[in-house]
Design a protein that fits this description.
The protein has helices spanning 14-20, 24-32, 36-41, 46-52, 82-89, 105-110, 119-130, 156-163, 193-196, 280-292, and strands at residues 2-7, 57-59, 62-64, 71-75, 95-98, 134-139, 145-148, 169-178, 199-201, 210-214, 219-223, 226-229, 236-238, 243-247, 271-273. It has 294 residues and is α/β, with parallel strands linked by helices.
Length: 294
């Protein structure tokens, strides 16, 4: 039984994403999921390795990455991600890829003009596939979102264990990172994301915006950021120790000030310096180098 698995929202126009930040799709997956072979060795070696250095660990040429997800599934709506994720399918990475995923011909047609129209269907497909095979499942939206699990002191898996499935969803806050000083990222690659974006809106951009981790055995239907559970009462738990960093300008030059759905629309919200993931750039650089074999 897997502890925690992750799924993407519909990915499309991957060539554009990779042109902006070369290596971003591989970095996004590798950051969250660990190597398959390490799952077999973890009972003996990993607890001791983590104790000394959780940021980047080497074990017989395999790297333990920053997060501890057991599996990552990437859903592609137009097949454009195939050449970029192909190396992951050939390595010891617990990873699955659906090219041109659509539940019906109708959604396949709609996805051409409305690429996110299948997001709720994907979320439920992911959740139902996890039922009976995983304890928890998370939709990590787009490759501009990275879970920040208290750098150097992983808490997420420990927290999930402590919950003992008394809740249906653990809700992680989302912090919006931007680069208000310079929108030009010429020459930057995926490992530079964590040092280029070090300024975030001090509060959460949306007071109600959370990224859920579902118990797939207790959720009947999921839709974006929400769940319908079997019980009549809503069983959720919020946490502040673990957050999701949304690098808002990763693929767009727009600013969060322009978002009409923001809780703080029309209000001047200050920026805070946040370098809590600055060291992750080196971790990602090593992971990408390892997967490419160079």
């Amino acid at each position: 039984m897997r502890k925690l698995v992750a799924c993407s929202q519909p990915i499309y126009n991957a060539k554009y994403l990779e042109k902006r930040w070369p290596g971003v799709l591989q970095a996004w997956v590798l950051y969250h999921v660990r190597c398959t072979i390490l799952l077999e060795l973890s009972a003996i070696f990993v607890p001791y390795v983590f104790r000394f250095d959780y940021q980047i660990c080497l074990l017989t040429h395999f790297q333990i990455n920053y997060m501890g997800f057991d599996h990552f599934t990437l859903y592609d709506s137009d097949g454009s991600a195939a050449p970029f994720v192909a190396p992951l399918l050939q390595q010891n990475v617990s990873f699955a890829y659906f090219p041109k995923w659509a539940a019906t011909p109708c959604t396949a047609t709609a996805a051409q003009s409305l690429p996110y129209c299948s997001q709720t269907l994907i979320e439920n497909h992911c959740m139902w596939n996890a039922r009976g095979t995983a304890e928890w499942v998370m939709l990590i939206s787009a490759p501009d979102c990275f879970v920040n699990d208290s750098p150097g002191a992983p808490l997420l898996l420990e927290l999930l264990d402590s919950l003992e499935h008394r809740i249906s969803a653990l809700l992680l806050p989302t912090f919006v990172f931007e680069n208000p000083d310079n929108n030009s990222f010429s020459g930057a690659t995926a490992p530079d994301i964590f040092t280029v974006f070090t300024k975030r809106r001090c509060p959460m951009l949306l007071a109600i915006r959370h990224m859920p981790i579902f118990d797939p055995h207790d959720v009947s239907v999921a839709f974006v950021h929400e769940e319908l559970i079997k019980a009549t009462d809503t069983k959720r738990q919020y946490t502040a120790a673990i957050a999701v960093h949304h690098y808002f300008q990763l693929f767009s030059s727009r600013a969060s000030d322009d978002l009409k759905w923001s809780t703080y629309t029309g209000i001047k919200v200050p920026y805070c310096e946040d370098r809590s993931m600055a060291q992750i750039g080196d971790v990602v650089r090593h992971l990408l180098k390892d997967i490419s074999g160079t």
